[in-house]
Amino acid sequence: MTEHSCSFQSRQAQESLRGTAPLVENWFLLEMEGPYGRDVLQEGKLDDSVKAYLGNLLARHANSKLLLIRNSETNAHEKIRFIVGLQPRPNSLPEFSEFSLASYEDLLNVDLSRQQNNSNRRMQPTVLVCTNGRRDACCALYGVPLARRFSPLAGLRVFECSHVGQHRFAPNLIAFPDCIYYGRVALDAVEDLAAHLQNGSLYLPALRGRTIYPPPAQFAEAHLRENNVPENTPVMLIDSQSLDKDIWHVTFQVGSETHTLAVRYRENTGVFIRSSCEGEKTHHPGEYEILEHATSGP
Predict the structure, then answer these.
(1) pLDDT digits over 21-64, tens only?
(2) Exposed site from 2, 177, 219, 289, fewest CB < 10 Å?
(3) CA 47 to CA 31: how far, in whole Å?
């Protein structure tokens, strides 16, 4: 890692991970041999009709994301795995189903209504690690060793994947079925993180956020967990409202209590760091903070 890389500059600026996951409510994960290019829908292995179908899927489902995935079984696998997660209602986790395809053209015959009837939200814990070096060098440099460290762990299904976003936080991974982004995951933290994934709890040191929540709510959820809300106590987002461009009110149901938090985002306008290892785009690092926290109920 050089001083000119985006991940180095992000670490040096102590850019916060919290509340940086993109808002994604619906997922489409398609197995394909790598390496991957910059644009998933421009992959040469896909027929134009399949690209059009996938593009229409993304257009029909708000806040959706398509990722290409692969692991050590991909080349030997006779079938192509297509994993679909659709959100049944606002602020809820997607319900997941897996389809087995003989060819990519079979995507045109996938019946997503059957997915709704045969979904299994608590699928096997699955980890996606971004290793897409063609999109950003940091993703390959740090993602490939992380994927290899995860692979032997029992109870976890591990895939390398195409670009997940914000490569300056590399290595990035997404944990399913709980739809949680983690960043800057250290190799010596893999076993600890894996234990959290298997029991469905948050691993706070590398947490970026839960993708079904907007970023201010992601930050507020982490704040609640850090402040004596036990992992076995349900935390459910009720509402998130913007008061102005930098302040939000976020309300959670925490067990039998209601917690309302005022969240503010502040940029460090005196610092510029690279947003990517490609190009010249820069940004101000920033972070969220809690201004108020009110509790009501028993």
Answers:
(1) 999 999 999 999 878 877 787 777 889 999 999 999 999 999 99
(2) 2
(3) 15
Q: Which residue has the tokens 């930050």?
A: 219
Strands 180-182 and 173-176: antiparallel
Take residue 15 and report the two structure tokens written for it.
């850019």
Q: Judge whether 286 lies within some domain.
A: no
- The mean pLDDT value of the chain amounts to 90
pLDDT one-digit tens code per residue, 186-214 = 999 999 999 999 888 999 999 999 999 99
257 in any annotated domain: no
Alpha helices in the chain (DSSP H): 6-12, 48-60, 112-117, 137-150, 190-199, 215-226
CATH code, domain carrying 121: 3.40.30.10
Neighbours of 201 (CB within 10 A): 14
Residue 173 falls inside a structural domain = yes
Kindly state the DSSP code that residue 123 receives in the 8-state scheme.
Answer: P
- Global confidence as pTM: 0.93
CB of 288 closer than 8 Å to CB of 273:
no
* Whether 233 contacts 254, CB under 8 Å: yes
State the residue for tokens 């489409």: 28
Backbone phi, psi, residue 198, to 5°: -70, -30
